[in-house]
Amino acid sequence: VSDTSALGLPGSRTVVADIVNRVRSERATQRTLLNEMTYDVLTQYGLSETDKVWRLDHSSIGHVGAQCLAQALMDNVVVAELHFLDNQCGDIGTQALAEMLHRNTALKTLDLDRNNIGDIGARSLATGLKANATLRVLYLNVNKLQDEGAQAMAEALKGGSTLTTLHLGSNNIQDAGAQALAESLHTNSTLISLHLGTNNIEAAGVQALAEALERNSTLRTLSLERNPVGDVGVQALADALKGSSKLTELNFGSVQCGSTGAEALADALKHNTTLKELKIERNDIRSVGAQALADALKINRTLEQLDLSNPGLVTTTLGIPGHLHWQNHWKATFRLQDLIYGVTVSEMRVHKRWRRHCKAVPLWKVYCCGAIASETWGLRHSPTPLSTTRR
User: Fold this and answer.
1) For residues 277 and 303, what is the distance between their CA atoms, to the nearest angstrom?
2) Considering only CA atoms, which of 66, 31, 30, 61 is closest in space to residue 44?
3) Distance linking the first and last C-alpha atoms of the chain
4) How many CA atoms, within 13 angstroms, populate the side-chain half-sphere of residue 87?
5) DSSP characters for 73-137?
6) CA distance 48 to 39
């Protein structure tokens, strides 16, 4: 109040002055207490302001601990990584960490997995990200983010965020959130890796992401595992892979993909020259889809890893050789060039007695349950390595 006499009360100037002084005193006391608590937290967990990495996973220090850490990191120029997984800091603690991002110029990795963070905390973080120029990796897996939280993150990506890796898995993000993130990819030029596994994103959200990939030239890794994407969503992204997408890693594990989606991906592999790793495990692609992928591998020369592991598919559709039936949950590692050129597999990893033959597993490999390869590609199995010769 600039003119206390305007209050029209006797002695109003004195009353206001007393209130202001009291508030200032309380704030000074709070800062002193916070500084003391911060010192106690750092001491208790053996942290030093000269350490480059602070690890406080599963420490149960809650939002008060988060506020202390935010206070300690406000002007710190050394700590580059803060791992704060499973501490239940909630939105209140997240807001303190977001305020820290406005001033901190050293932190590059912030891990806030399993912290009961909702959309309010996500909005605070988004504001901090817009003002921060150093943070590169942000983990927000297993929280309570919904579409509004994803939209806030999208605004940060459009607003100058320097993030290169964003983990938003195991939340409750649906199509609207995915569409907002897709829109941000139209203009964002820093994000390299986006992880959206175990949410509720359906075909509409994936279609928006597919359209964004046609224009985005920086994203390299996209994880969509355990989302109800379906064949329609898989086909949309397959079309993007045939276009100008620069993706090198795509995770489509357990997305309700059938043989139709697998055939679409196979067709995309015949044209794509950038994808190096494709995961479509735990999908009901059946023999038709596996055969389509096998045919595509005869043309594709850039894919290095293909994960088809699916115990249920093997046991119900393709059948397993007797000596492999009990270990249908193991992944076998095959040399991809063996599949392309139709030669005998010389190295595989299914059982520990074979591991001594796999010390130098080649970079090119296919993961699948053995019977898929045996049924579809006619590959043989043996506990001893076979010579690599053409059939």
Assistant:
1) 6
2) 61
3) 91
4) 24
5) HTT-SS--EEE--S---HHHHHHHHHHHHHH-SS--EEE--SS---HHHHHHHHHHHHH-SS--E
6) 10
CB 168 within 8 A of CB 193: no
For the chain, where are the E strands, in sequence order?
A: 53-55, 81-83, 109-111, 137-139, 165-167, 193-195, 221-223, 249-251, 277-279, 305-307, 332-334, 365-368
pLDDT digits (tens, 9 = 90+) for 206-226: 999 999 999 999 999 999 999
Residue 59 CB contacts under 8 Å (≥ 6 apart), including other chains: 45, 65, 87
Q: What token pair was written down for 150?
A: 């994803």
Rounded Cα distance, 372 and 324, in Å: 12
Sign of CA dihedral 283, 285, 291, 294: negative
Q: Are 135 and 163 in contact (CB under 8 A)?
A: yes
Number of residues in the chain: 391
Question: What is the predicted pLDDT for the residue at 291?
Answer: 85
What does pTM read for this prediction?
Answer: 0.77
